[in-house]
């Protein structure tokens, strides 16, 4: 029977202390011998394996270093010290992908809970290294893809894909609050060039603005955009119900023209001729001036259905006004129409201290829908409204 020489815990602790001292003093070979006595005894901790790894590093044996680190992480997968050294080991041999994985693990673990104050500088260094490799990775990808036309007109969707791959943007999906139509493309901001009929609408912007300014002279013309629904429970999760900070003046409302308002805005009525308005009796279209008062913010929310697009014709736009749809934020530009899917999370704000922001809003059918599909959607929602005998009011 083999005699056990190092079974005494006191002897093992002495070997650990002697090995750690030798490592600090640059005697890597002696340190390794001391640590090996503990591992051979079959009682190593993650710290001991880390000591073995550091001794092998000092002896320039990367393969043995990583084997020891793997043993340490097998005992303690969340050991920040072992993860950090593993990242450094891979960085030293030029394996950026592996190094990034370990540095990323360090940063994520540190975000989950308290970290030993002595390790905080290493956590900060891991974050810096991760960022450096992220920049190198992005430069590498874009350098390759630029040669394939990434920055050209055909690269628009690929640019978004690359941003998602790099974690520079988040993925936002259609989540209409009421009616979802399957298999429509998930597009945040539609391409303006796909809607040539908007040229006529933009051409009328000056005339529409003159009519708007006349309406604005009457304080009572605008009413809060979000109104309580009669005969229904009302929950105001966004703090907008009855709030005049976001107000509206309707030319069409719930699918019907508002005669007295249309008479005041004949340029709007003419501009809507030939527009593929989303027409569902009792529901849509809605055509309105949407007003945001200074300092107003419409919190993130989702629209009624993905079967339509929302169009904006900006008419009065001071500075510090913008809208985010999904991952992309855009400012409004007076007289330049934009088209977006409001079933994707969106928000808007007017951060100007003392000026209004007003846009003309109207909703159109998604162009991917056939005439038969549009008819079926309309019939479905009318059937919903007819159930129970009470008319629909609002979206």
From TrEMBL:
<feature type="repeat" description="TPR">
    <location>
        <begin position="46"/>
        <end position="79"/>
    </location>
</feature>
<dbReference type="InterPro" id="IPR051821">
    <property type="entry name" value="Asp/Asn_beta-hydroxylase"/>
</dbReference>
<keyword id="KW-0560">Oxidoreductase</keyword>
<keyword id="KW-0802">TPR repeat</keyword>
<dbReference type="InterPro" id="IPR011990">
    <property type="entry name" value="TPR-like_helical_dom_sf"/>
</dbReference>
<keyword id="KW-0223">Dioxygenase</keyword>
<dbReference type="InterPro" id="IPR019734">
    <property type="entry name" value="TPR_rpt"/>
</dbReference>
<dbReference type="Pfam" id="PF05118">
    <property type="entry name" value="Asp_Arg_Hydrox"/>
</dbReference>
<dbReference type="InterPro" id="IPR027443">
    <property type="entry name" value="IPNS-like_sf"/>
</dbReference>
<dbReference type="GO" id="GO:0051213">
    <property type="term" value="F:dioxygenase activity"/>
</dbReference>
<dbReference type="InterPro" id="IPR007803">
    <property type="entry name" value="Asp/Arg/Pro-Hydrxlase"/>
</dbReference>
<feature type="domain" description="Aspartyl/asparaginy/proline hydroxylase">
    <location>
        <begin position="203"/>
        <end position="367"/>
    </location>
</feature>
<comment type="similarity">
    <text>Belongs to the aspartyl/asparaginyl beta-hydroxylase family.</text>
</comment>
<dbReference type="GO" id="GO:0016020">
    <property type="term" value="C:membrane"/>
</dbReference>
<protein>
    <submittedName>
        <fullName>Beta-hydroxylase, aspartyl/asparaginyl family</fullName>
    </submittedName>
</protein>
